[in-house]
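Schema walkthrough. Field components (list of strings):
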Amino acid sequence: MSLFDYLIQHRADVLVRTAEHIGLVTISVGLAVSVGVPLGIMISRRPRLRGPILGSANVVQTIPSLALFGFLLTVPFIGLGARNAIIALVVYSLLPIVRNTYTGIVGVDPSVREAARGMGMTDWQLLRMVELPLAAPVVLAGVRVAAVIAIGVATIAAAIGAGGLGVFIFRGLSMVDNGVIMAGAIPAAGLALLIDGLLHLVERKIDWRVKR
Amino acid sequence: MSSPVVEFTEACYDLGGRRLIGPLTLTVLQGETVVLLGESGSGKTTILRLINHLLEVTQGEVRVQGKSTREWDPVRLRRRIGYVIQEVGLLPHLTVARNVALVPYLEGWPKSRREERTDELLELVGLAAPDFRDRRPHELSGGQRQRVGVARALAADPPILICDEAFGAVDPVTRGALRGEFRALTRRLEKTVVFVTHDVREAMALGDRIAVLQTGSIEFLGTVEQFRRDQTQTVAELRDLA
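Field assembly_structure (string):
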């Protein structure tokens, strides 16, 4: 069956799966941001924690995704489904977010930091008014990488019953039908490009160096 | 007799076993401008940082308004000391207005009062407020940035100003003009000023008194008049540079 016939016949199903996919990625990246940004801030303050935290984020990043889904299956209260997928996706998204938050903050010009302290800013004010705004484009670049990775990895989550566009890919594999595989792969790729572009726009929007 | 505002008493600052400053004894009186004159590496900037407790003396003490910097809450102390920074140190992501109003903002002034104060200060340093308020630092010339730096230091009306090569980033013509305006301004506002420079002419133009620094110690301390007449070799050599 050709790709377009399949897409047209199953358009409702494709839309539902796309929505599932977006849901998985949004929740996971959202959670990864709320954990990763504070972690990045923390290691910028406590250099001794930097090695262990970046190291572990790095190591989990290297676990093949299918294997990670498999490991999580055996963990009590996780098992099959979306919860398993979200945990794995958060783990994968963490590294770029933590690393970029850290890089962004330590990359702030020391003379700017010194000036802010000299004006009488508290640590908290320095972070909120100077370091985070100046690091924001770098942090967001990390979120962008995380989101694109998560969109890709989330297709594999269909293997553990988490739904999403991977459903078509696995169905196509078992049917040996490239058209069906494409019905999952093309929307997933399109989604990745779209999110990448959108976040890039936001990145430019918050970059103080870009003239407005 | 004016009261002492900044007092160094046998103050030393060591880093990694090396003595960078001191022992240093110096009293800056209410309303006067003391210029610390020295080459780069003579410890001028370090001395300013000891005043606002960005650094802490290893021996002796520094008192600001009668209280040791060790006893001051560093945040409170820094907000009472206007700091004009080498290479200006404006926050690049904030507009001119927000940079100027920074300390008033930190101090929780209401918005209307901050805006009024910002415009007043921009005019005071010779920048037309409507034109400059909403610009960002990178859209200004070196001289304009420097003026904004001075406006920012004055914003919360601190009794003390410390200035680190405040006019170092501008061309000689603007420099002369800024210098004159700065002196008139700090006189009028009765600020106590500690001004760091390596420029002998600047020191003579701005200071009530000059302290010549070499490797962290004061080699000469006196009024500009005494500086002009002093016969010691160090001072004579410096005068030749002017």
